[in-house]
Amino acid sequence: QARCMALQLIARSAEARAHRHPIGLARAAAPARFAAPSPAAGDFGLRPQDLHSAYELPTSAPDVQTIALVDAYNDLDAESDLATYSAEFGLGECTASQGCFKKVNQNGNGGAGSLPFPKSASELEEYLDSSRAKRREEAEEAIGWSVEMSLDIETARAVCQSCHIVLVEADSSADANLETAEESAAALGADEISNSWGSPECGGCIGASSAFDHPGTVITAAAGDEGYLNWLEPSGPSSAYFPASSPQVVAVGGTRLKLGPDSEWAGESVWNDGGESDGEREGYGATGGGCSTQFEAQPWQQDASDWSSVGCGDKRAVADVSADADPYTGVAVYDSTLECEYLEGSTTHWCTVGGTSLATPLIAATFALAGGAGGVKYPAETLYENEARSPGSLHDVTEGSNGECRLPFDEETGLSACTPAEEAANSCASKAICLAGTGYDGPTGVGTPDGLTAFTPPSNAPTVVTGAASSITQTTATLNASVNPNGHEVSECTLEYGTTPSYGSSAPCSPSPGSGSSPVAVSAAIGGLRANTTYHFRIAAANGGGTSYGSEETFTTLPDPPTASTGTASSVTQSSATLNASVTPNGSQVSECELEYGTSASYGSSAPCNSSPGSGSSPVTVSASLTGLIAGTEYHFRVVATNAGGTSVGKDQVFATQLPTTLEQQTPSGEQTPPGEGQSTSPEHGVSPSEQRKQPPVPDAVLAGTSLTASRTGIVVVRVSCPAAETSCAGTVTLRTTGAVLLPGATGRQSKKSKPAILTLAVGSFEVAGGHTTTVKLHLSAKARTLLAQLRVLRARATLFARDPAGTTHTTQVLVTIRLAKAAAGRKA
Q: How far apart are CA 276 and CA 490, in angstroms?
């Protein structure tokens, strides 16, 4: 047995009755207070002009359309109530005598004698006064359905004012009777059939679905008023409603509509006026929906771009589309059997009514304004195709959930006390089947009407899909899309882009989509973009059938890599130093920052920057403190920094650690003099007797041989030995001139200005096991090579600085002779 989906908004308190308009509607105050509220002023809910303004709808269909409304029992005053409604809003007459309005029984027959209960007002009164409970229940149910019928008829009339209306009255609310009425509505030639009723889905629904399978006819069905899977109905089964779950119909969900000062659309959210207090479900309804357990989803529903996030697998999802349904933003309805209190003790037959029973005839009438099914077998397909082709043809409802709220309902605001995320988490594991979001979702389907484009079967215009951008750099990107020409030559294809949704720039598609019937991948490589900037883009393609626009997508260009600048070393000692630099993040978070260092420009070691440079646009000073360095050694270093835009390296800088203090002596001028200069040296090691006394009993490393040869390319090979008493020796060997020399290259005036100085010829490192000898290859500096080329033979001092495994440092010096190798035979020297 089915239930109707009409909900009346009742002012239950003096404060509520004091509202000039229904609580959820924010309207400008009337200039003067009337003795009684005025439906034409919007005091009882939305008027026809509000629906047309909010949803950008015309008032008339392009040709005669007949909307059939399937309901239960007999509404004795259906035609006269419609006349009162039409007169109030200036809609003109729609009567049986004109052929505009018709009332028939479930078998399609008219005439007062053939209509279902009640056949007269006296019969209704008799049943209401009966001592038999079953008769009283039937009478009360019939009155409830009369309100449903007034809502259906007046909503259809408000939206499509040129449409004919056929009211098909089933003998009762039993599913079998309503399904018979459905068959009769189709047999009468209705272009659209509205069903503002339903019952929980069950195993027998598959057999019953044939009553709603009428290809080429728009059949709308209410998603229900008890929330996702009927959660607000404590005694009802947890399921979607049927016939909304039938794959042949257009399932209609409900929203709360916001209007601007001129009745323009100002936003919509999922209708959910439900809650829970002390374990009891309360509130005033919520749009139904959920995954069918009996029916598979039609291909066009499964083709929705976000179908995988819905949570129904291959099963039918309810709803397909939606419209205003919240009683707090309901419509004004006139019904002779219903009395609505507007002031204490004052009643009227004008009431505020909502529910998905409002949304369902509204959507049926919108299809009528668009000309009906337009030859489409099951017109729900039209909605999904147009949503994919032209997303802007619908209001995409992205806020709210029809899931369960476990907090008390707020009657003052008519809003759920839960957040949508909480409701969805309680009911559907936060899937889109009960949580609104961009694109398709269960509570609102593909959205709500925004003109007639989405309800008009698409022409043979191209089918376009905007893809994702690729190959993104700071200044370039590739925009991707697909175009199905639908059998007509695509005359124009561009990818529009810009820093706002207004775009402003475009690039031609490559390749041309041609004229086939399958999707063709197209793209456009664009340049001249700004770094770290968000761009909007979409595909646009035209053929003889029209122009189609893809959905809007975005991408963000890469930021510029950091600006890295190596500074100078500071706090340099024999074994430590502080490396300094600066990094400008250029507006993107620096993910990695380090200072590389080593005894050559190959580095080999690194230390992290002392703090992250962040993501700003100004230089940030960074540093790294090093320890464990080798005394008297030259080190190279540079800064390296990375952000999303790439990696930058600073220039190579050089510093030298201090020599051991035991080998330093002060000249009279205060300048440090290299060890051994101006002193007598021992024959073996070239150091003074006093310095010899400072050496450890066993030298850490010695130079094996004092006669060295330099190749024409400046390579000098020395052999370093480690005493057997040591485990190992590791350190550096440095060659310097024995005295100050005039640096090579200083000639003429330069030589007069230049001062002689001790020249470092080469530096190299070694590591050798105790009792062994190793070969060290030294590279003479450019100045050393020039000096040796001039002198042919050069006396130099070799300084060996080494550490043993215990960490003790030892220094040894010896005088050596360096000779330039002879030129090879047949070559000039």
A: 56
